[in-house]
Design goal:
Helix content: 40-55%
Number of domains: 2
Strand content: 15-25%
Oligomer: single chain
Largest sheet: 7 strands, parallel
Number of helices: 15
Order of helices and strands: EHEHEHEHEHEHEHEHHHEEEHEHHHH
Low-confidence stretches: none
CATH class of the largest domain: Alpha Beta
Number of strands: 12
Mean pLDDT: 95
CATH superfamily of the largest domain: NAD(P)-binding Rossmann-like Domain
Radius of gyration: 20 Å
Structural class: alpha/beta
Distance between the termini: 55 Å
Strand order of the largest sheet: 4-3-2-1-5-6-7
CATH architecture of the largest domain: 3-Layer(aba) Sandwich
Amino acid sequence: MKKIVLLGATGSIGMQTIDVCLKHPDKFEIVGLSVGRNINLLQKILTKLTVKSVCIKEYNQFLIDKYPDIDFYFGDTGLIDLVSLSDYQVLVNALVGFVGLMPTITAIKNKKNVALANKETLVVAGDIVNKLKNKYGVTIYPIDSEHSAIFQALQGNKINQVKKIIITASGGSFRNLSREDLKNVTVNDALNHPNWKMGAKITIDSATMMNKGFEVIEAHYLFDLPYNKIETILHYESIVHSMVEYNDNSIIAQLGNSDMRLPIQYAITYPDRYNVIGSEELDFKKWSNLTFKEMDYDRYPLLKFAYEVGVKSGNLLAALNASNEEANLAFRNGKISFTDIERLVIECVNNTDYIKNCNLDDILKTDRWARDYIKKKLFD
């Protein structure tokens, strides 16, 4: 029985993690979880799970009275308290955004393995996280479908024999639109992803291709590969989740339906593989044609920009993430246009005071500065 603390339980990855654990009650026990403000969904979850500890965004006396056997924690400090508990083996970090960084670092310092869906952890502080991971002897298992695919394709092989990794991208909601067409797209348009059911923030990031840029940076830190060995390619069907090409020119790919339960389950069961109950087998008769196209960096400038910022690294990565979070939110709230996201992110990073060798305090300060920068621009 593997005991799990789950952060971001009411999100897409969180709910699918709960589903995986409920389908294998002899293998997993979720002993603690966090949610944001979705109290109604939390109560539905608590009818299915018996957990010892829960963290929510804000203090709630109603929950404390209704669930006297549960220890409640609150806010960002509550997240830290939750992951600091001793009675679990794996942290599943399914939080969205910068808020996931400090819980990951805390769990690592408490010698807990991390199944990571919160890509921002490595985007903004990959060097720091990797040093801590090595110091405390823990492992980070990727949950993103692309990184899980690469992780699987690397099994039994040596990283120094990798020629390159190839990260596939669906192209997002607007993959068939021109740059000119993007000027008038709506939030509802952007949230209509052709292949995946995801949360609002990541779906918008997929449309701008910022999400793919973050995946490139995350892959750099997960697999210790330089950026010139990380390629992105358009693949509309999302069947080939990513590939690894070796020095002998052979390519190993991981294929499957668009079902996040597979990478979630693999992250918490590695090196074992269990049946993903309820998941459909990939039927090749339905996929007689798979499409691959060269990435168009003029069409997706934020992906190109992410490569450039990744090479520079330092605190610019924190500015990249923070400005994107704020611009993404501003678009979802109807304050800016879709193409304004790109403009604001690039402008913010280019105006950031660069610190190459940054520490955690530098990252936290840069995060705050970048958010303030975007918020001020919204009122210009």
